[in-house]
Amino acid sequence: MTGSAIHPGAPARHYALLDLGDLRLLIPQPEIRALEPTLDVEPAPDPGGSAAGWIPFEGERWPVYCLSRQLEPLARIPDSRRVCVLVGAGEHRFGLACDSVAPVAGTDVQSAPLPVCMASGYGAIDRLGLYQGGVVLIVGAAMLAGYLEHRYGLATVTPQPEPEQTRLPGRTAVHRTMPLERAQLRGGLTPGSR
Fold first, then answer.
1. What are the b/e assignments for 159-192, b being 16+ CB within 10 Å?
2. Tens-place pLDDT, residues 50-104
3. How many domains are contained in the chain?
4. 52, 112, 160, 162: most buried by Cβ count inside 10 Å?
5. Could you report the per-residue pLDDT of 165-191, keeping only the tens digit for each?
């Protein structure tokens, strides 16, 4: 699936609600490339770096970030973060470790521009939203990547080595990931896909 970045301030037709502990983010569904279990994330060899780990996807290794409530990278992924949302907009490709993911129609979100006190040149937040009585942060992949790059140094996607093959008597198993099809996103994420 090829996603196109939304222009800052432009509402999306469909969002995905990402729960990251106490933080709730809305990201446009066209920017989501796949959902993967965080069990597939390889921990980062350097726990002092900004990425918590790496995940193989479409022949590449994508950095995975686990963000705190303050949008700061955590060194490791807590057990509660079970879903890795792979997002991409243009050259910006990375994963976000989340507790859960749910579909949200754009018409269900009341959005407003950021107050002047929250706006900055390298901010991760595009707009504020009101959804189901609570405030959510509306972000885009390009804005979030720019924020991470400016504040913490965004890790780059690297080529994935050939898949590991595990040899069992009479069988060979190869680890592969399955991309989430665009039709699944248009129809919304189903409860079984969380």
1. ebeeeeeeeeeeeeeeeebeebeeebbeeebeee
2. 899 999 999 999 999 999 988 889 989 999 999 999 998 788 899 999 999 999 9
3. 1
4. 52
5. 544 555 444 444 444 444 444 445 544
Which of 112, 136, 114 is CA-nearest to residue 123? 114
Residues 6+ apart with CB under 8 A from 102: 16, 17, 19, 189, 194
Bridge pairing between strands 92-98 and 60-65: parallel
Q: Are 47 and 56 a contacting pair, CB within 8 Å?
A: no
pTM of the model: 0.74
Is residue 4 domain-resident?
A: no
The residue written with tokens 């726990």 in the block is 47
- The range of the structural domain enclosing residue 70 comes to 14-181
Closest CA to 89 of 162, 178, 160, 154: 154
- Note whether residue 186 is domain-resident: no
Contact between residue 52 and residue 23 where contact means Cβ atoms under 8 Å apart: no
What pairs with residue 88 in β-bridges?
93
Query: Are 171 and 59 spatial neighbours (Cβ–Cβ below 8 Å)?
Result: no
Other beta carbons less than 10 A from residue 125's beta carbon: 20
- For residue 82, being part of any structural domain is answered with yes
Q: What is the dihedral of CA 143, 148, 150, 155, to 10 degrees?
A: -120
